[in-house]
Amino acid sequence: MRTHVNSVGLLIRADTASDFSYPSHIPRSCIDVLPPHPGIYIFRDEEARPIYIGKSVNIRHRVLSHLRTPEEAQMLGRARHIDFERTGGELGALLREAMLIREHQPLFNVKLRRQREMCSIALREHRPEIVFAKELDFGRTEGLFGLFGTPRAAQEALRTIAQAAKLCSVMTGLEKGSPGRPCFARQIARCSGACTGEESAADHASRMLDALAHLRVKPWPYAGPIAIVEESAGLRQKQYIDNWSYLGAGIGRTRPPKARRAAAFDIHVYQILARPLLAGGLDVEIL
């Protein structure tokens, strides 16, 4: 059976498309009430379990496009009802979608599934070291580079960077070596000689820092939680964030919902918010 994941993270089984017919078994009443505004939508099965969760700046338009897509026949065949939640804007929809997918793990969502292990690269005494989120608070730690799902992925990224920047494979921890002995990369003229003393450890560390700079993880820029305010078609909503972690939404609330535990760094929230938040283009309330 051939499968792939489409651009919105929906698992597609291509061999079901030939059996597609418009899903008349989904009640028209739940389709008629879909609004043309930002928010999330949930396809549920006969036991009301979420099987696919999506988001859009126009809920109605996006859901109707699902209903007309033959490649999504299997998901539509299992669906029996569609729910929706409006948000104050696109960011709220993105955050709410990510939270619900991690919470419910719907069958046909793939892209935002929970990552079991997250790691990054830290520089310790001029050498890179793989560190793990379960041991370190990524949201409040300076000097981290890259966010990876496995140590192997981190090692491969480091290897690619080392080759491009002619870094020493011993000094980067990619190869074991003895003092003064050339690493393999030096032997083929792809290392500037930090392993043999031809390049100082400080100069090598500076070049390595420059090579890793594009992967730098930005620490949480506030002392505590904030609210991001969005408004759409009369709905003014606040999205509460702390330490790159989504705390929930509120209307008119002045404090975020109480969390059961300290806000833990969330890679999906970081990927959604880091660029627009650090660029300064959002309506932010510091709490």
From TrEMBL:
The keyword Hydrolase applies. GO terms for molecular function: hydrolase activity; nuclease activity. InterPro entries: GIY-YIG_endonuc, GIY-YIG_endonuc_sf, GIY-YIG_UvrC_Cho, UvrABC_protein_C. One of its GO terms (cellular component) is excinuclease repair complex. GO terms for biological process: nucleotide-excision repair; SOS response. The keyword DNA repair applies. Residues 36-110 form the GIY-YIG domain. It comes from the Bacteria. This is Excinuclease cho. It comes from Pseudoduganella lurida.
